[in-house]
Amino acid sequence: MSIVTNGRLLYAAHPTTFQLPGVHTKYVEVKIDLETVALDGGVLIRTLALSSDPVVRIRMRDPKIDHFFPALILGRPIDNWGVGVVVRSEKPGFQPGDFVYGFISFENYSVYPGPPEAQHQFQFLQKIAKHPSIPASVYVHDLGMTGETAYAGWHAYAKEKAKTSKTFFVNSAAGPVGTFLIEYVRHIHPHIKIIASAGSAEKLEILKEAGADVVFNYKTTNTGKVLAEHGPVDIFWDHVGGTVLDDTLLNMAQFGIIIRVGTVTGYNEEDTGIKNIKHVVFKSLTMHGLVIGIGEAMQTAAVPFLEEATKLVLDGTIKTREWRFEGLQQAGQALADVHFGQQIGKPIIIVAED
């Protein structure tokens, strides 16, 4: 027998505002036998790294509240994007030792896809030919969800427009999607002026390093004034919504494109209304919302992602930045901290070494 201690981060209570480790999430340990645990046609995975993302907060709710993102289940482990190694398999196409990427449970060891009540439409698991020079954790962000979001979103909705555009603005840009996007856009569209915002001096330096031409602190500088000086904006990549979206609508160029990737202002508190939505009509703007892997446009655009992005990571065009939390014991803190904007780089929970 091969009995091990299996750490697990459970969803414990529904938050009403910001989540608290130990209250809304709880770390526990149980014993499991790796040789006999039932797979039910699935795969036993040893987890290597997990992603901490603001969207997990949306899932922390009563399942009676309808939403596009599936609700977490009280008393069960949280799941999110992650990477791991196959230990045992009853699933065709997966063998012990395979490196896998997908929606993985917050456990040292877990069975994919798990019991029927825990399954949802975002679950997936795929084998990846991991490059020996790239750490496993990078496949959670630059070569995983955040990199694919930036790459596929740009190719699906902005690449053609960018050929004739002068100005591109990305807000809350020092996160992993924003920095990947700036570095990638600078690489393929060197003519575009890139405007980027973040919330600290340290993050502004990262944006400059990534290739942004104009950077500003949104906490101390009015977004509308910056865009009025350096715009109008042809392409706007929005992570935030709220008043920033409102200010940018006033400063969009005619026939501009808005790509909405997040609404961070509404994850923990009530959404704020948009006053300047009329400019979508007046300026003939196009607004796209996107979620990774959803819709034909995003799926088609993502096909070349891993091959191209791997080359860009290896040659240094895309620079890896991580904010690491060591061990599943820190996973609850990682999920909470992501909402306060202190992290530099992608928040990653390192569960085990490669």
UniProtKB/TrEMBL annotation:
It comes from the Eukaryota. Residues 176-306 form the Alcohol dehydrogenase-like C-terminal domain. Pfam families: ADH_N_2 (PF16884), ADH_zinc_N (PF00107). SUPFAM superfamilies: GroES-like, NAD(P)-binding Rossmann-fold domains. Keywords: Oxidoreductase. This is Enoyl reductase (ER) domain-containing protein. Residues 39-114 form the Oxidoreductase N-terminal domain. It comes from Antrodiella citrinella. GO terms for molecular function: oxidoreductase activity, acting on the CH-CH group of donors, NAD or NADP as acceptor.
